[in-house]
Design brief:
binds 2-oxoglutaric acid, four-stranded antiparallel sheet, alpha+beta, Oxoglu/Fe-dep_dioxygenase_dom, Jelly Rolls, binds fe (ii) ion, single chain, oxidoreductase activity, eight-stranded mixed sheet, cytoplasm
């Protein structure tokens, strides 16, 4: 494999090739790792030769779904192979894999290494903090200050809470889940129109976490949309755009109120986080996660243990559970209260608060029964804001624990590296 690692890097054309090499469905017989490994070895031997055989490499990175088609086309241009490749392209997602695979097994490249501790769960749902949004925004000062206090405790002790009475209607939430799911029901060709190749593309359909870096694939397809400061969403299915626009706007309103409460809980001025992070022009990324049923869920991960890069992530999912959070080293499955939103603190909360409020490690598991849909909206600073620990939260006995970094660079750092259980914060820790 090292031969291929040497050609990773900024050159997107080579990355396109690596994508083909790393994604076994695209070549050989589906899911047969032996063939794939053999193929990789042969490719490594002939890599230089292949490179010189493809005169039109440079156009590759300007294309989206056509990248792979053209690449293969250049190498093996027969109609039969073209059709075969088209067929394999349809398996560029777990959904298509599940729908086309009649076997009851999991392809070996999806099998995750798990430690025995990974499977031990602690049923502590009842202890997960619940915040009442109506109290947080109440005109009664005692009620409000009590809610702010609870919010601060939740961020400090858990990095996670459920939010009730948030004012976003159940109808809208259901619409988001339903229409979000229907995006994945589009044909693979239609979805591939959105298969962006850059991390910060305004709309990006994909699978796993980041195919360029994943050593194991995750049982997840996704659609990511940058919804603020500029709103972006696919034009298909027709109702999706409008629904996501309303949902993102309402979610942002809720988050802004929470950030006021969190600033006050830290002894800072109400608009502190808002101003310092330029939330007005903040980067809001909405992700629809699609986890199809899996014949052997214990072997795979929907999303492995990770922390989110933003300040606060708002999350909801359909009737199927699967989110687990790490609390005091233990994995706790989350069963949300009816109509509640789930919130987790992200890395930029930890950076800004100089570690006072830690970003919570979480993961998503899958099930045998049905498709799980979750919708997460990461609310972060403006992409060009440089964030470091707030000077008010740094002192002689509490020196700055993270170096300042531009939010855009942090996102790229996180997304271009494998999700390997370590938080990306380790990369900027002083
Ligand atoms: O699906 C879930 O419950 C979690 C999703 C998640 O952690 C993410 O999108 O970052
Ligand atoms: Fe997450």
């Amino acid at each position: 494999m090292s031969v291929f690692e040497t050609v990773t890097g900024p050159n997107a054309t080579f990355q396109s090739i690596i994508l083909v090499l790393k994604f076994p469905f695209l070549y050989g017989h589906t899911c047969h790792m032996i063939n794939v490994n053999l193929f990789l070895i042969l490719q490594s031997l002939f890599f230089g030769y292949i490179k010189s055989c493809i005169p039109n490499l440079t156009y590759l990175h300007n294309t989206k779904q056509q990248v792979l088609l053209k690449l293969l086309h250049s190498v093996t241009p027969t109609q039969k192979e073209h059709n075969h490749f088209q067929e394999k392209l349809n398996m560029f997602s777990v959904k298509e894999l599940v729908e086309s695979n009649c076997t009851s097994s999991v392809p070996s490249n999806y099998v995750c290494l798990k430690t025995p501790e990974d499977s031990i769960l602690y049923d502590e749902t009842d202890n997960i903090p619940t915040i009442d949004f109506s109290q947080l925004t109440s005109s009664n000062p005692d009620e409000r200050s009590n809610a702010i206090h609870q919010l601060g405790d939740a961020c400090r002790d858990w990095g996670f809470f459920m939010l009730i009475n948030h004012g976003v209607s159940e109808t809208l939430r259901e619409k988001v889940l339903r229409e979000g799911e229907s995006f994945f029901d589009l044909s693979q060709e239609e979805k591939m129109e959105y298969a962006g190749e850059k991390i910060l593309d305004p709309i990006r359909y994909g699978t796993s976490f980041n195919l360029m870096v994943d050593k194991t694939f995750f049982w997840r397809d996704y659609l990511k949309c940058l919804v603020h400061p500029h709103f972006n969403a696919p034009s298909k299915p027709p109702a999706l755009r409008e629904t996501l626009e309303e949902y993102s706007r309402k979610g942002k309103g809720v988050v802004e109120e929470l950030l006021k409460g969190i600033s006050l809980s830290l002894g800072l001025e109400e608009n502190y986080i808002h101003k310092r992070m330029d939330v007005e022009m903040g980067c809001q990324v909405l992700v629809i996660n699609y986890y199809p049923p899996c014949p052997k869920p214990e072997l795979v991960m929907g999303l492995p243990a990770h922390t989110d890069h933003g300040i606060l992530t708002l999350l909801m999912h359909n009737e199927l559970g699967g989110l687990q959070i790490q609390h005091k080293g233990n994995w706790i499955p989350v069963n949300p209260l009816p109509n509640s939103f789930l919130f987790n603190t992200g890395d930029h909360m930890e950076i800004l608060t100089n570690g006072r409020y830690k970003s919570v490690v979480h993961r998503a598991v899958v099930n045998t029964k049905a498709t799980r849909i979750s919708v997460g909206t990461a609310h972060g600073p403006n992409l060009d804001t440089i964030v470091g620990p707030a000077p008010e939260l740094v002192g002689d006995d509490n020196p700055a624990a993270y170096r300042a970094i531009k939010y855009r660079d942090y996102i790229l750092l996180q997304q271009n590296n494998e999700l390997d259980r370590k938080t990306c914060l380790d990369r900027i820790r002083i």
